[in-house]
Amino acid sequence: MDKKEVFEKVQNKKQEYDEMELQILERSMRISTLVVPILVIIFILIRFMNPNISVLNIADLVTVVFAELCVSKTYEYIKLRKKSDLIISILSFIICICLIILYMFPF
Question: Rounded CA gap, 85 and 71, in Å?
């Protein structure tokens, strides 16, 4: 193989992420995992202060998962400007708000 063939082969080979995207993904995961213990403490305090909340109500657990997703995708959108990240971030934020309302005021 000559240099031109090697260059074309490398150009044709698609990488899933480049180095910058990998760093941004790693940082977004680190930031979003900081949100989890904060939310868990908040929900524990809410449950402690409001004994009417059922122990079987799992909205708080699901909220933590969607909040982590929201923070991660928001950071990725800020850095990479991908529309899919923005859409996922907005949807997960709306789901978080609905779940918090469901948690605070169960039916």
Answer: 10
How far from 60 is each of 5, 39, 71, CA to CA, in Å? 56, 9, 16
User: d(Cα 30, Cα 105) in Å, to the nearest integer?
Assistant: 32
Domain that holds residue 88: 57-107
Query: Cα dihedral angle (33, 38, 92, 17), rounded to 10 degrees?
Result: -10
Q: What is the pTM of this model?
A: 0.76
**Residue 67 covered by a domain:** yes
- Count of domains in the chain? 1
pLDDT less than 70: residues of the chain: 1, 6-7, 9-17
Rounded alpha-carbon distances, angstroms, from residue 84 to 59, 80, 89, 106: 25, 10, 8, 32
Calculate the CA dihedral of residues 18, 19, 20, 24 and round it to 10 degrees: 100
